[in-house]
Design a protein that fits this description.
- By secondary structure, the protein is of the alpha/beta class.
- The chain folds into three domains: about 120 residues, Udp-n-acetylmuramoylalanyl-d-glutamate--2,6- Diaminopimelate Ligase, Chain: A, domain 1 (3-Layer(aba) Sandwich); about 150 residues, 2-Layer Sandwich (Alpha-Beta Plaits), CATH 3.30.70; about 90 residues, Arc Repressor Mutant, subunit A.
- Helices cover about 45% and strands about 15% of the residues.
- It has 15 helices and eleven strands.
- Strands 6, 7, 8, 9, 10 and 11 form a six-stranded mixed sheet that branches.
- Helix 2 packs parallel to helix 3.
- It starts with a helix and ends with a helix.
- About 30% of the residues are buried.
């Protein structure tokens, strides 16, 4: 878990004589780094989640500080600390009001306090937190892979997680250039802010961890209510909208699995949903909504499935290759049988679905019975072919 602004503030407010002027509701924001900022043009190079410190050297330029904080808010920054007493006697009231209205953290510190010391201190804390997070993530990865971890780790986790509660995993698979990887990591950091500000300011208090494993991003949330799953998924969709838009990102949402030792199962099912999203070119797939596809995509031998479908449908494929006109795709025997199954063996509905006369459908079904050596009359006789068509849908 990344370090948040309120943690830095609470731990150092006395040492640096910090005073919160506005934006308390935004203090749960993640802080990825701290920069000295005296010119608003540099904000365009920020990726979001940065904290800025300024002495207000441009205080003589009307409206400069207001433009700075509004630019930072737009860029998704964590907040600003203003060093008052030399260039800026006090923070302008219009800036205080704006930050309060937009939940943008605005802090003040006196000129006598060393800005350099504060920045060094904060950056060191951020690096130490990153180091701790990397160590914890290595142990989480062992759990996700079903390997043993020390009991000490479970004891430590118990202070942050409900170990006997549910764990749900969200799996993301991006396809990125080297430059886009930086942008994606920045968006992943902003994702952590979702757990600080939830539904217009009320806090989400569900423990989580976020890590990358084999080029797949894994978000695991502890005790997330079923009613909030769609909301969190929507937040993920908004944060990564640019990547979802052109098919470079897919998301698999796993079911709730009981207990921390079920993380391997939780990951497996989220990966199954992700596999379906990737193969069938869907942005988001929920494991709980996959139906029989949940079983099909869980197989570790996709070639076995493909061979099954090809073997079962081979007589129809061969007939269609010999008789179907190229200009009439979708009217072959295989398509007719699929429609026949999907329309519960109704000749009339199958005819409508295939834009074919009812008598033609009846004739084809009789021929297919001979080709396949099956009566094609009962659910048991049709079920293997339904499975074969589903396997074809998987685009293996």
């Amino acid at each position: 878990m990344a370090i948040r602004f309120w943690e830095l503030f609470e731990e150092t407010r006395g040492r640096y004589q910090l005073r919160l002027l506005a934006g308390k509701q935004g203090m749960d924001s993640v802080v990825s780094w701290v920069h000295m900022v005296e010119d608003e043009t540099i904000i365009s190079r920020f990726g979001g989640t940065e904290l800025a410190v300024t002495t207000g050297m441009k205080a003589g330029v009307p409206g400069w500080l207001l433009r700075l904080v509004s630019s930072m808010k737009k860029a998704g920054c964590a907040g600003i600390i203003v060093n008052t007493g030399r260039y800026l006697a006090a923070v302008p009231q219009e800036v205080v009001v704006w930050c309060g209205q937009h939940d943008f953290p605005l802090l003040e510190m006196p000129w006598e306090i060393s800005v350099t010391q504060l920045i060094q201190d904060y950056c060191m804390r951020i690096m130490q937190q990153s180091h701790r997070e990397a160590e914890n993530n290595a142990l989480f990865i062992r759990l996700l892979l079903g390997k043993e971890v020390s009991e000490d780790f479970f004891e430590e986790m118990g202070s942050r997680f409900h170990l006997d509660g549910t764990f749900r995993i969200f799996c993301m698979k991006p396809v990125l250039t080297a430059e886009e990887k930086v942008l994606f990591r920045q968006a992943a950091l902003r994702l952590e802010n979702v757990f600080g500000l939830w539904k217009s300011g009320s806090k989400i208090r569900f423990p989580y961890f976020l890590l990358e494993l084999n080029e797949t991003w894994i978000l695991s949330v502890n005790d997330l209510p079923e009613s909030d799953v769609c909301e969190l998924t929507s937040q993920i969709g908004q944060l990564f909208a640019d990547f979802f838009a052109d098919g470079r990102l897919h998301l698999g949402v796993g079911p709730a699995c009981q207990g921390v030792r079920s993380l391997k199962l939780a990951l497996s099912r989220a990966r199954t949903a992700l596999k379906m999203a990737c193969h069938m070119e869907q942005k988001i797939v929920y494991f709980d909504q996959m139906g029989f596809f949940g079983i099909l995509f869980s197989t570790s031998d996709p070639e076995l499935l493909k061979n099954y479908a090809d073997r079962l449908l081979a007589p129809l494929d061969a007939y269609d290759s010999r008789h179907a006109a190229p200009s009439k795709r979708g009217t072959g025997y295989a398509d007719t049988l699929r429609a026949y199954i999907e329309n519960d063996r109704s000749l009339a509905r199958t005819a409508a679905a295939t834009f074919t006369h009812r008598n033609t459908v009846s004739y084809r079904i009789q021929n297919m019975k001979q080709l396949l050596g099956s009566g094609l009359s009962t659910p048991a006789e049709l079920f293997p072919y339904q499975i074969a068509f589903w396997i074809r849908d998987m685009k293996l």
